[in-house]
């Protein structure tokens, strides 16, 4: 995982990244979530420790059950690395383990969430399977919440909600999905470097964050190449605001940003 300082970026570039990142994060809560906002917490496996901590804290401070979905996929090694580098969690074994199993250890061992409140789905390898296998688990356990708080890596939050909507689209008991990423990432830049405004352990390297955010819009677009109903039909239709499309265009055509990303191996 890259950890070196990312160079300074122009204000126009920073603003575009933050516009895109805020929209992708899809935070539906103006204030911190409360127990009455849902009947179930669903956390999709990811490598962003502040998001994982937010879900665990909510479960620890409420009676809500926590369902963690995530097996071993192409991004699981990023979770392994984040755990290894974390000052508290680095004692948790990771190699060969499912994301959900690792995150359950965080929830029960460090946040003291009772083990009987935690369900895990440990076979899914991508966002689509997170939703499909969670659906199967909830059907088997006869879990039918009216409202569920859905939590994911902020760069994938909006697509994850659309994926869960797609999987449940024919189910009369589809929950109201309450979208909460745990936090909304923002970049700041001075004359020397670019960094996150949130100074927490377990965030992405800046270059990975930018790369992930840029890669989401082509997936979310409802066209022949996208994941929507007009394309691969993995997600429900999502309207992309003009301001977000414009921000993505600015970044996609930013030669200085492209050069920096190329130099840093992304």
Q: What would you note in describing this structure?
A:
With 266 residues, this protein is of the alpha/beta class. It folds into 2 domains: 6-24 and 186-263, YdcF fold (Orthogonal Bundle), CATH 1.10.3620.10; 27-179, HUPs (Rossmann fold, 3-Layer(aba) Sandwich). Helix content is 41%, strand content 12%. The strands form 2 sheets. A 5-stranded parallel β-sheet has the order 4-3-2-5-6, with helices on both faces. Strands 1-8-7 form a 3-stranded antiparallel β-sheet. The mean pLDDT is 94.
CATH architectural designation of the largest domain: 3-Layer(aba) Sandwich
* Cα end-to-end separation: 12 Å
Shape: globular
Major sheet attributes: 5 strands, parallel
CATH-level-4 superfamily name of the largest domain: HUPs
Mean pLDDT: 94
The value of Rg in angstroms is 18 Å
CATH class of the largest domain: Alpha Beta
Parts with pLDDT < 50 across at least 5 consecutive residues: none
Set out the fold topology.
Elements: E1 6-7, H1 11-25, E2 40-44, H2 49-60, E3 66-69, H3 76-85, H4 99-109, E4 118-121, H5 127-141, E5 147-151, H6 157-167, E6 176-179, E7 187-189, E8 193-196, H7 206-220, H8 242-252, H9 255-263
């Amino acid at each position: 995982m890259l950890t070196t300082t990312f160079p300074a970026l122009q204000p126009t570039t920073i603003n575009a990244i933050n516009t895109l990142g805020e929209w992708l994060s899809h935070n539906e809560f103006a204030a911190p979530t409360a127990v009455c906002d849902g009947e179930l917490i669903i956390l999709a496996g990811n490598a962003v420790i502040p998001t994982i901590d937010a879900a665990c804290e909510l479960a620890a401070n409420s009676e809500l059950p926590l369902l963690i979905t995530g097996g071993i996929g192409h991004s699981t090694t990023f979770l392994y690395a984040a755990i290894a580098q974390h000052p508290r969690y680095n004692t948790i074994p990771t190699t060969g383990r499912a994301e959900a199993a690792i995150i359950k250890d965080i929830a029960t061992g460090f946040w003291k969430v009772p083990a009987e409140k935690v369900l895990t789905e440990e076979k899914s390898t991508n966002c689509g399977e997170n939703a499909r296998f969670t659906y199967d688990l909830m059907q088997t356990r006869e879990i039918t919440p009216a409202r569920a708080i859905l939590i994911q890596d902020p760069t994938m939050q909006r697509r994850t909600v659309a994926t869960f909507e797609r999987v449940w689209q024919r189910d009369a008991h589809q929950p109201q999905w309450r979208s909460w990423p745990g936090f909304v990432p923002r970049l700041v830049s001075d004359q020397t470097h670019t960094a996150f405004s949130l100074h927490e352990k377990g965030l992405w390297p800046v270059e990975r964050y930018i790369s992930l955010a840029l890669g989401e819009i082509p997936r979310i677009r409802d066209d022949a190449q996208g994941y929507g109903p007009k394309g691969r039909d993995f997600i429900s239709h999502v309207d992309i605001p003009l301001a977000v499309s414009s921000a993505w265009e600015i970044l996609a055509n930013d030669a200085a940003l492209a050069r920096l990303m190329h130099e840093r191996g992304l």
